[in-house]
Give the backbone structure.
Amino acid sequence: MTALHNSFEATIIAKASALQKTIVLPEAEYSERVLAAGLECAEKGIVKVILLAKSSNLNKYDNGDSIKVIDITSSDLIPTLANTLYEKRKEKGVTLDDAQKLVANELYFGTMLVELGYADGMTAGAENSTSDVLRPALQIIKGKVEGGLVSSVMFLVKDGNVITMSDCALNLDPNASELVQITKQTALSVKKYVGVDPNIALLSYSTNGSGKGDSAQKVRDAVQLLRREKVDFSYDGEMQVDAALDSVTRKLKFKDCKLINVANTFIFPNLDSGNIGYKLVSKLGGYKAIGPLIQGLRRPVNDISRGANKDEIVLIIAATAIEGENK
């Protein structure tokens, strides 16, 4: 892999610190890792945090500035959040009573804080499933483009190398058009977070037509759609991962490949391969996994891997602040 930054993590922290965004942490009361990460972010000036609770247990951390604690069972914001949620979802059959019950859940409460601008973003998932974290975001915040795809991106970091992978958390079996959207979203994320030009391999069990099957054809079709759109980043496919990683192998299998040097970004054909792939690289290769970061939402809500440690959660919080830079 090509070395990119001396410290990708330090760059993320520095960018977030310069922005001074406010990030809500719904799991702070019952996740020691999340609480520790949030307190560290506030203490080091990376972000300001809102800690949600259903008791007075966290009140001692409220300093009126970088740390705010909200008891979601008694907050003055409850009527505003519930009424707004009702207005947003009543066409889907949600009643005011339903909305009041939903905002009693910390994930919905936190999402509504982001939607109404009380917070610049939300980070959760250390103790909740990805589906539980993203359900309120998809219902309330929704995509940047109406009907547009929401996807995820993972950054894997080791010794100055940064590898980007997508989609490893959300889309089960994206079709060719959805793979195009994932590829374009991921290219933007590489530029935003890593600060380099993406060099993207659309992966398959087949390289340049060597294998047959619906999955390989889907990736070929996605590449043809990207050609028609004339996107402004380096990419090619379909290709096996050895061709993406090794230029000698690629010349043997894919002589006319348009990739520039070794790929730094990998688009997987489905969730099985994406999730397995990033965890293999992380666990066997010793790469630190940062993510998944959610791409395509109007406002930032990011999932924490349930296996993430405190330092990884700090990075997700910082990345959420960067994602909300222009919000």
In short: The chain has twelve helices and eleven strands. The first helix runs from residue 8 to 19. Residues 1-5 have pLDDT under 50 and may be disordered. Residues 144-296 form a domain with the Rossmann fold fold (CATH 3.40.50.10750).
